[in-house]
Amino acid sequence: MSEPQIAAVPPTEQDSPTPPVDSQGGDQAKESTKSPKSFNTSFSIWPPSQRTRDAVIKRLIETLSNPSVLSKRYGTVPQEEAADAARLIEEEAYSFAAGKAGADDDGIEILQLYSREISKRTLETVKARAASDSTAENGSSPPVVSTTTNEETPSVEES
């Protein structure tokens, strides 16, 4: 069985485009490389738009209220409670990150800080909720702090 043969085709004028010529007969391609136009564009990803912040809250609600790696360890949060917690987590993380933002950054570091704060606060929220749920399930209540008028320092009583 013989291999098919491919005939060599010489290049044509269509294969090698010629650079455009300007009205003075000069080569435009060469001119454009000699004096490049600089674009002074600014790119910033901080602060996020309200639409982005709303999407973060929606995702947090899903994470807190649906089965996930987090819920396997700490349990799921009811939808209404998750919505309140998600709004609070996002708002606190946004405020924290906005307080650290500088006018001269492009926002990448601040966005990373915002993201870390959301993660940290989400974990703190589910841990605190799991701890309060476990004390309620055991029938014990957390220590009660009571103050009396004849003592200077509050006392802690187990109930």
TrEMBL record:
Gene3D superfamilies: WPP domain (1.10.246.200). Residues 35-46, 132-153 have a biased composition (Polar residues). InterPro entries: WPP1/2/3, WPP_dom, WPP_sf. Keywords: Cytoplasm, Nucleus. Coiled coil: none annotated. Its main location: cytoplasm. Residues 42-134 form the WPP domain. Pfam families: WPP. It is found in: Cytoplasm; Nucleus. This is WPP domain-containing protein. Residues 1-46, 127-159 are annotated as: Disordered.
